[in-house]
What we know:
5 helices, globular, Acetoacetate decarboxylase-like
Amino acid sequence: MADRDLGVSVPRAFLTAEWRFLVMLSWAVDPAVLRPLVPRGTELAAWGGATYASAVGFLFLRTRVLGIPIPLHRDFEELNLRFYVRRKGPEGWRRGVVFVKEVVPRFAIATVARVVYNESYVALPMRHSIDRDGPALRPGGSVRYDWRHRGRWHSLGARTAGEPSAPAPGSEAEFITEHYWGYAAQRDGGTVEYRVEHPAWRVWTAEAPAFDCDVAEMYGAPFTDALAAPPSSAFVAEGSPIVVRRGVRI
């Protein structure tokens, strides 16, 4: 059922782009670590009785802000650490994400995201390495994203296995990939909700997942124990064109 059928207006698109070659590593995290970060009006979402945080690296391509391509700011990397929440909407539960921190190599992009959504964006040097045959990922290829922080390079990566396929209904991969709302706590204690539109993604199972990061420096000491362990799941998603709608206060 379309939002308009429910009497819900659809905000104008704020950003359009493609998100491609997403490395997604996830860990079960103590809810006590996440609860202080949950925006007002939402609640923690769980899968299999556990709450999760995911480190995600990907390429931002063909980016337009309010329909306008910004020179030197169209193609770049992003890394984020996110966790999962939900909120009851007119159509039922809205599955959403909350970002602990997002990293991009473009200062202007980080500034706009902080100003418009109050998202925790920082600008750091970044680079990537992707085994490709033209635009496609090479079979068994690896995907890696690096960022420089406090004088050294950190990295996130994995090697794909087999062929990409749609996540099984009810699987952990489906839970991780299929969230179509973002929530950001505001300085005054309120919350901004924004919609992220994209088709369901096919994913590869990942082998040799790697996360080399000073977690305490990047995300705070409470995340150290969970993110020091091997991830509970690791996969690479193909990605797709996306639309990020303007945020609204809830």
